[in-house]
Write a structure and sequence with these properties.
Beta-Lactamase, alpha+beta, globular, 166 residues
């Protein structure tokens, strides 16, 4: 018996002893609907407008893929990519970009994350959770400072919180 036949025989034996149930082979997850992502983005943009800031807001799904991008009329040309980067970074690391900024200063163990392609380690990116599960993230760019960006992002999440608590 050659090695290939032996390998196939062992694999078939293991499969017959330990069969996978269908539900063990699939993963179910929660995700923001496009409508809810848009509501979040509109609320964050509205919060910044009330404060006098022209910003861009990006909402990404749990995998960091952009679902919604809104840019106010006078927001800088850099704001859409920065907002999307903040949202992607928050979703990727499952943490706010403000927290990531604090733990990745030069000389710190996690400082290398600042060099990852696409990572934007500036305040203004927050994760969105529902029932303890990550469902997406939001990034805001254009307010005067990461703390102001984050306040608008938080206002966006707060505006849809009742729909997240399902």
């Amino acid at each position: 018996m050659n090695v290939r036949c032996l390998s196939v025989s062992i694999a078939l034996l293991i499969a017959s002893i330990c069969p996978l149930r269908a539900e063990e082979g699939l993963v179910a997850y929660k995700s923001l609907s496009p409508e809810l992502a848009l509501d979040l983005a509109r609320a964050a943009l509205g919060s910044c407008r009330v404060r006098g800031y022209q910003v861009a807001v990006a909402v990404v799904d749990r995998f960091g893929v952009t679902q919604v991008m809104l840019r106010d009329r006078f927001a800088g040309p850099h704001t859409p990519s920065t907002a999307a980067g903040k949202a992607w970074t928050a979703a990727s690391f499952k943490a706010s970009t403000t927290e990531l900024n604090a733990i990745s200063q030069p000389g710190m163990m996690q400082s290398g994350i600042r060099n990852l392609t696409g990572a934007v380690i500036i305040g203004g990116g927050l994760i969105v959770e529902a029932g303890g599960s990550l469902v997406g993230a939001v990034g805001v760019s254009g307010a005067p400072g990461g703390d102001a960006d984050e306040a608008c992002a938080k206002a966006g999440i707060d505006a849809i919180q009742d729909k997240l608590d399902f």
